[in-house]
Amino acid sequence: MSEHYEKVKVQLEEQMKAPAEDAGGEAPADPPPAPALPATAPAPALSRSARRETSRTSVHPRNRSKSRGKASSRDTNANVRQDWDKCKGLSRLGSEQMLQIKGTGKILQGKTETNGSKEEDRGENGKEKGSRVVQKRRSVTVDTSKAKTSLEALKLSIKQLKWKEFPMGRRTACDIYWHGVSFHDNENIVSGQVNKFPGMIEMLRKINLSRAVRTMQELFPEEYNFYPRSWILPDEYQLFSTQIRLLKDNDSTLKPTFIVKPDSGSQGDGIYLIRDPADLRAFSGAQVKQAVVQEYIQKPLLIDKLKFDIRLYVLVRSLEPLEIYIAKEGLSRFCTEPYQEPSQKNLSHVFMHLTNYSLNIHSGNFVHSDSCSTGSKRTFSSVLYRLASKGVDIKKVWSDIIALVIKTVIALVPELKVFYQADIPPGKPGPTCFQILGFDILLMKNLKPVLLEVNANPSMRIEHEQEVSPGVFEYVPSPVDEEVKVGVIRDTLRLMDPVQKKPHMANLLGGASEEAIAVEAGSEERVRLVESLPSLCLKQVFPKYMKQFNYLRMVERIADIFLRFLGVKGTMKLGPTGFRTFIRNCKLSNSSFTMASVDILYIDITRRWSGMVPDSREAGMGLQAFVEAFFYLAARRFKALPLREQVLSLLELCESALEGQGHVEKSRAQKQHSGINPAPPHTTALPALNSPATTGRHQDSRDQRADQTLRPSAKANVEC
Hints:
Residues 1-142, 664-720 are annotated as: Disordered. Keywords: ATP-binding, Ligase, Nucleotide-binding. There is one protein chain. The protein is an alpha+beta fold. Among the domains are: 1-8 and 139-224 and 306-499 and 534-552, ATP-grasp fold, B domain (D-amino Acid Aminotransferase, Chain A, domain 1); 229-296, Dna Ligase, domain 1; 553-662, Recoverin, domain 1 (Orthogonal Bundle). The chain is built from 23 helices and 19 strands. A hairpin with a 2-residue loop joins β9 and β10 (306-319). It is globular, with a radius of gyration of 29 Å. Residues 18-133, 502-522, 678-690 and 695-720 have low confidence and may be disordered.
């Protein structure tokens, strides 16, 4: 591919010189502007030296002329544009061939994504027409004062987009704020967009992630079997010990292996393998660190006899409505010691069992490579290509990975909505949020993907540490990291461009391509910029596949009910009064379940959860405790049904009751407006539920029931 781009570059330079020679062998005083090569070539095989040479050529954007109004310049521009169109066609052809080899995204289906916009031949009636004044579009501003390890990739992305960076911050508001750690890196933001969600760090700790997925496993065990069985320490130590002892008693030949992960650990720190609960480290004593112990995947897929995992980058663009994008390219990180199934002798061999880059970088067998398909860190597409060459169904692999990502985010959303409302209550000025997550996925020998963990702050470094002399290390550029990470950050910024807001909302309903949004939202200058960039490397998977996965959002519907009764803005815990109001308004109490029983239930569940979350600063019932109470109420009311149907039935009952109150309150307000004094209300008025999570598979049945119970006269009119 590098030879191909060198030929294109030489052809372009020769074609640019031709118009000047035809005009009399003398170049014009001001050379015509020439179109720039894409800032990041879509071909990963293009070497760094070739990119440097390309950037030094005469077609660099800084050499563009200011004298666009001259007729000779217009003619030259037209010739160059025609020649450039031909070169772009060659480039697209080369890119298509490359992408087919890579096997990523829609190329797997035999289609090539292009940037979507066709340049029009404006001629004499275009932008250069003297009577027409085109206002230059305001540059998007990005505050990078709180960015950390992603700084170099972020700077490259902003430069490619021709946006304005403010590395020291700005007194006036910026369009986008890029934080390095959390939403609270800067507490004084009241507008714009922040690249972190409130509560994301907390939710992606090992224990909270395990609890969120476990709740979904109770409702949908088959759909959430991609997460290994987990126990939370120290709370579930006795349960873990008992279950493992019974397992071994039933089958003495079983020798399971478990992996222990500290709750707040990162980069492989503190991870180790055990074969018996007695092997847990530092478990006795008062200073017990919280951790998660999981079943170890003993039969992973191997390449070159090495175990590897996949780092995929996922963009959560918004929570309301929920939008998820997956990067078409990712990283494959390899162990540096040939894999053997766990035994008592090799449990401590971290270079064999742990795929963490931060650990294997210190191995003497770690291989740095400028190639995307060799070395200890490779592109995911190179792995897919290798699997495809062996007859593996790559479409099925991608489909399973997409389903895993969507299901995991759906499990996280309920708690994230509580965090979000606590930090940015409705009606309070504040920014909108988005975030790039790092999904670590392992492929089993049967090609089933398994979720290892999700990182709230995945590393976006595009350099790696290399020993240049004994004991001397320095950071050198990493072509593989730059190929993947710069594209992810750049295209995240493109999707979050504030100019795209209105077209973006229309796209949710109309299904237009992301590239088309960028073209429709800007001026002619913007169109040219979009055409110079590669096609988006981020693929929307939700709401694109909403119909297939919306039925899983039952816990999110419970969270919507929970949020309605919090009462005080900024709080995350439900008090006893709020819980009693929930029971009363949903009409869940009766002679066998009195309000005294309600209070006992609240105290019992709240006390148990306060012990499991000792660092909680706020008293009351959190969402996870409320979900447990909701499950209890569902099982009590609908005893004959399985758990999922119990919860669904109680959800529909509560939503119907609350919607009915909303209609009553609306009718009361209309009577007040017309001068009729209604009877005093007996319950607190609440607005109707409007969350998209309530529009799932069972929405039609609820609507029909609401029509029959709440609007009988309107229903009769329709039937007549």
